[in-house]
Design brief:
Rossmann fold; elongated; alpha/beta; 10 helices; 16 strands; seven-stranded mixed beta sheet; 29% helix; single chain; 366 residues
């Protein structure tokens, strides 16, 4: 799920352009000054698509797509960038299938290096022969990204600034000789069986079971015919394990990350679970409002509880009267206070190094 809330009061129009995207704007826009023939440009962003929007404005001949894994961030960027004939956002587990002439990829030094490798390999595959990739980092002393680019391209141009970062530009001259799979599979025991998880870079619970998920599974009990909603499901570990415990329940995992939903669906297939489904949604909404018996969540620890509030409000909306909510966290004070305002019978239970906060959804007033 997204790590920020729609309730945020931040004015996105005032957000500064990340240095990595400004470096790309400065390096790439001059290359497009004389471009008159239509070209297809693929971008990613560290914020609200500032580089993508700038390229679209600078080059009317460019058809620019800013790609996201996260539906909520894509929604924010559409609101920020506004309408444009040659700029669009897309959200999917993979880059669009259409071949591209130029890719513009900002990266953050040291953050999710496996995802960077994965996305650059996918970018190389998407480029037409002769197409160019421009990638940036906020590390002015970078060597890691430079070496990665050199392993993929015959010639790499380095554009450095003393304090801000580096841009690398390269042209595709041949396909990659070998493609690496970044998909991972792992198992963990739950009750009387092993649960198989499929994960990919950029997805919560990649390559290992999260300790919070493990703590939640230790205390959750399910009953025949329960309808369960797992918000921010990631690769689906919690929901898949519960679905495997009892074939008479139904579990829905929701996440704003398109890859997470793909992984959860693959996990359901790997475990042969017909009673689990995954839904891609920007805000946790899905079918069946007011019909769920149990709501589960493992919200992030930052964003000043804005995402936590989104989880709780979704639970109020999706649970049936008398339905139960269970939230796992290491810091529970805020949850106890806020849940007491929204739910009845708030209580807590320890599970390893975590605390589970539980409550009952209030009966709606007529």
């Amino acid at each position: 799920m997204p790590r920020r809330s729609k309730k945020s009061t931040t004015n996105v129009k005032t957000l500064p352009t990340p240095v990595q995207e400004q470096l790309l704007i400065d390096a790439v826009c001059p290359l497009l000054e004389d471009q008159t023939a239509e070209i297809r440009v693929l971008c990613t962003t560290l914020s609200r698509g500032q580089a993508a929007a700038a390229l679209a404005a600078a080059c009317p001949a460019a058809q620019v797509t800013c790609h996201f894994l996260d539906a909520y961030l894509a929604e924010l960027t559409r609101e920020f960038a506004g309408a444009s004939l040659n700029f669009e956002t897309g959200c999917s587990a993979e880059f669009p299938e259409a071949a591209i002439d130029l890719a513009v990829i900002p990266t953050h030094s040291g953050v999710e290096p496996e995802l960077t490798r994965d996305r650059l390999q996918s970018t190389h595959q998407a480029l037409v022969e002769g197409g160019r990739l421009a990638v940036s980092t906020n590390d002015p002393k970078d060597s890691w990204l430079h070496e990665l680019m050199q392993s993929m391209f015959h010639k790499v141009t380095r554009i450095a600034t003393k304090k801000r970062g580096v841009v690398y530009i390269a042209r595709k001259t041949a396909p990659l000789k070998k493609l690496k799979s970044f998909e991972a599979r792992f198992t963990f025991p739950d009750h009387d069986r092993l649960i198989t998880i499929v994960s990919r870079p950029g997805v919560f619970c990649h390559r290992r079971l999260d300790d919070g998920a493990r703590a939640l599974l230790k205390v959750v009990e399910v009953r025949d015919n329960d309808r369960i909603l797992d918000m921010g499901c990631g690769a689906g570990a919690v929901g898949l394990a519960l679905a495997a415990r009892n074939a008479k329940i139904s579990v829905t995992g929701v996440d704003s990350n398109a890859r997470a939903v793909w992984c959860a669906e693959q996990g359901a297939a790997a475990n042969e679970l017909a009673n689990f489904n995954a839904v891609h949604t920007a805000d946790g909404s899905c079918e069946g409002e007011g019909s769920y018996d149990l709501f589960l969540g493992n919200p992030p620890y930052f964003s000043n509880y804005q995402i936590a509030e989104l989880f709780l409000q979704t639970a109020v909306r999706m649970l049936k009267p008398g339905g139960e909510i269970m939230i796992v966290s290491k810091s529970i004070a805020w949850y106890k206070q806020r849940m007491a305002e929204l739910f009845d019978d708030v209580g807590t239970a320890e599970s390893g190094h975590y605390i589970i906060a539980g409550a009952v959804n209030r009966r709606r007033q007529k």
